[in-house]
Amino acid sequence: MDEYSPKRHDIAQLKFLCETLYHDCLANLEESNHGWVNDPTSAVNLQLNELIEHIATFALNYKIKYNEDNKLVAQIDEYLDDTFMLFSSYGINTQDLQKWRKSGNRLFR
Questions:
Q1: Can you tell which superkingdom this protein's organism belongs to (predicted)?
Q2: Is the C-alpha dihedral spanning 82, 83, 86, 88 positive or negative?
Q3: Cys bridge to 73: 11, 63, 92, 98, which one at CB 3.0-4.6 A?
């Protein structure tokens, strides 16, 4: 994103990044052979953290560029927080998983 890119392009990039994160997270959950046990220090989770950080930086730049669009940035922030909380602990419980899915669904509608 730069100062000359159109808003629709910036939104499309944000959507792509968030959907990529969502699908990577689902793949991580499906590949887990240990049930709901999580390893926050695994290579996959470290890559998820890097993607979360990249999206957060992109969202901050979007917020600076389009300060009137606070609702979208708030939804992205909530989704990133829920994603980080879900995958940064050693155990994944149903409540956290449902909260993460709800924030993702609100964002992708």
A1: Bacteria
A2: negative
A3: 63
- Integer Cα distance of 14 and 31 in angstroms: 26
- Tell me if 51 sits within 8 A of 21, measured CB to CB: yes
Q: How far is CA 40 from the centre of its chain?
A: 16
| pLDDT tens, residue by residue, 51-60 | 999 999 999 9
Q: What is the DSSP letter of 39?
A: -
Residue 44 · residue 88 · CB < 8 Å = no
Q: What is the pLDDT of residues 49-108, one digit of tens each?
A: 999 999 999 999 999 999 888 899 999 999 999 999 998 888 888 888 899 999 999 887
d(CA 78, CA 84): 10
Q: Are residues 89 and 41 in contact, defined by beta-carbon separation less than 8 angstroms?
A: no
> Under DSSP, is residue 37 helix (H, G, I), strand (E, B) or coil?
strand
Q: Exposure string (b/e) for 14-23, b if CB count within 10 Å is 16 or more?
A: beebbeebbe
pTM confidence score: 0.88
